[in-house]
Write a structure and sequence with these properties.
8-stranded parallel β-sheet; ICL/PEPM; 14 strands; isocitrate lyase activity; alpha/beta; Isocitrate_lyase; single chain; EC 4.1.3.1; 11% strand
Length: 531
């Protein structure tokens, strides 16, 4: 509905209610409605699910249409990302937010900093989703409020051309509300627990939920050791639980991202229940590391299974976990991925130990032999040493091609001594094009960085602390923070405005008219910053 139509509708409603509503201004109502487009989290989930589905179709048509996100651990961080994207690129198209379970554990738990092992309060996840969307909606209200102020000024100046242009901008306003891919870890319990948490996440606004095939009470970060997977049927039950949650709440096109940690997981807690030879459970068990045993020589407490007519003993650790055969990780990833898509997942996530297009693409090619439209969400993880990894990839490629690499020590390629070399330049170029190349060659629809803003917060705080508490003192803040905010046009240099002060002033004027006590008068120090 256009701005003019919103005003007309509000006038009609106010007129119906007569004198008691006489002091309610139709245009103010229209403005407040436009500033609060999304009334509930479910409105957001339905809106953003449609965006993701359209983006997935666009990627299928052309892999150049891949999507991206950065992890955000606070509503303000997510808000500033989207404000920045709109400022620099004019549109949030194909730009999302990622909600990282790692950052929730490390930064948002009442227990304090925790490792990524599902020990944090699971309710923190939907609370962060709600917080992120509260800040994104406030970004809408703020930007529209500035447009309304400009519109009032244009009208007062009698500039009809500018007023018309501003009304057109308002009618075509692009919201800061974008899809969030939200991490539910391994579901925080059984399938019922997964369903209950998924509902809370969807009600908060999540249109895409990522779930992994680890054991819930043994969950580890994807880049830690000791990962333990579950049989496929257990994982598929949780995928169905998330789908039921979406359907119950009317988000019929909600997205499920199925993550496999099998590449780095050498253990399982369960031997899968097999009904017949060759079924999915039997395929899962076929990866177990076993040894043949003599039925007459079975040890006390040994666990035995029958395989191809032979009695075998799976290798069991003192932790009561069973071991997979070494070298089976890729085969297990491929089977996990195919069966997850066959059982209701929409996108895949393969957690790898390095960012290598050939490795990822090789698995995707095998998956696509069965599921041609398979697409990945990929973690461009800060756990990878990107500089070292890519310098070593270039080194290996050069060595294989017969190029002289005698000037380089492969194990020490991270050294600053190599920064100006041709090898380092080629590695940096491969990093720059990694997302585009992997989207084209390895089926990656969505590239994300899980915890970048954890690192940027630490880096910027370190730099400020070093300068402010050192010889630069106040100049350390002014030179490297405030002056840069002003010159780069960072909106929150006017921090009162960013926190909602001007929105509140507008409301005060709507509610109290000339009697409103506003904060944005001539004595507000924010006026020292030019628009």
């Amino acid at each position: 509905m256009t701005y003019t139509n919103q005003i007309t509708e509000a006038e009609r409603l106010i007129g119906q209610n007569g004198a008691p509503w006489a002091d309610v201004e139709a245009e103010a109502v229209a403005r407040m409605r436009l500033q609060n487009r999304f009334k509930t989290g479910l409105d957001i989930a339905k809106y953003t699910a449609k965006i993701m589905r359209e983006d997935m179709a666009a990627y299928d048509a052309d892999p150049a249409n891949y999507t991206q996100s950065l992890g955000a651990w606070h509503g303000f961080i997510g808000q500033q990302q989207m404000i920045s994207i709109k400022k620099h690129f004019g549109s949030t198209k194909r730009k999302y937010l990622y909600l990282s379970g790692w950052m929730v554990a490390a930064l948002r738990s009442a227990f304090g900093p925790l490792p990524d092992q599902s020990m944090h309060e699971k309710t923190t996840v939907p609370m962060l989703i709600e917080e992120l969307y509260t800040f994104l909606k406030q970004a809408d209200a703020r930007e529209l409020g500035l447009m309304f102020s400009e519109l009032d000024a244009a009208r007062e100046a009698g500039d009809e051309v500018k007023a018309k242009d501003l009304q057109n901008q308002i009618d075509n306003f692009q919201t800061h509300v974008v899809p969030i891919i939200a991490d539910i870890d391994a579901g925080f319990g059984n399938a019922e627990a997964t369903y209950l948490l998924a509902k809370k996440m969807i009600e908060a606004g999540a249109c895409a939920i990522q779930i992994e095939n680890q054991v819930s009470d043994e969950k580890q970060c994807g880049h830690q050791d000791g990962k333990v997977t579950v049989p496929h049927e257990d994982f598929h039950a949780k995928i169905r639980a998330v789908r039921y949650a979406f359907l119950e709440l009317g988000v019929d096109d909600g997205i499920i991202v199925a993550r496999t940690d099998s590449l780095g997981a050498g253990l399982t807690k369960q031997i899968a229940f097999t009904k017949e030879a060759g079924d999915l459970a039997d395929q899962y068990n076929s990866f177990l590391d076993v040894e043949e045993v003599d039925a007459n020589n079975v040890g006390h407490g040994d666990v035995l299974i029958s395989r191809d007519g032979k009695l075998v003993k799976p290798k069991r650790l003192p932790s009561n976990l069973f071991q997979f055969r070494a070298g089976t990780g890729e085969d297990r990833c491929v089977l996990d991925s195919i069966t997850a898509l066959q059982n209701g997942a929409d996108l895949l996530w393969i957690e790898t130990e390095k960012p290598h297009i050939g490795q990822i693409g090789g698995m995707v090619s095998r998956i696509r032999e069965v599921m041609p439209n398979a697409k990945l969400v990929y973690n461009n993880s800060p756990s990878f040493n990107w500089t070292l990894n890519f310098r070593q990839q270039v080194y290996d490629a050069w060595a294989e091609a017969g190029k002289d690499v005698s000037a380089f020590d492969r194990a020490k390629l991270m050294s600053v001594d190599y920064d100006g070399t041709e090898l380092a330049a080629e590695a940096d170029e491969r990093i720059r094009t990694f997302q585009k190349d992997a989207a084209r060659e390895a089926g990656i629809f969505h590239h994300l960085i899980t915890l970048p803003t954890y690192h940027t917060a630490a880096l910027s705080t370190d730099n400020l602390s070093k300068r402010y508490f050192g010889e630069e003192a106040m100049l350390g803040y002014v030179l490297n923070v405030q002056r840069e905010e002003i010159r780069q046009g960072i909106a929150c240099v006017k921090h009162q405005n960013m926190s909602g002060s001007d929105i509140g002033d507008d409301h005060k004027e709507y509610f109290a008219g000339e009697a409103a006590l506003k904060a944005s008068g001539k004595d507000n120090t924010m006026n020292q910053f030019a628009a």
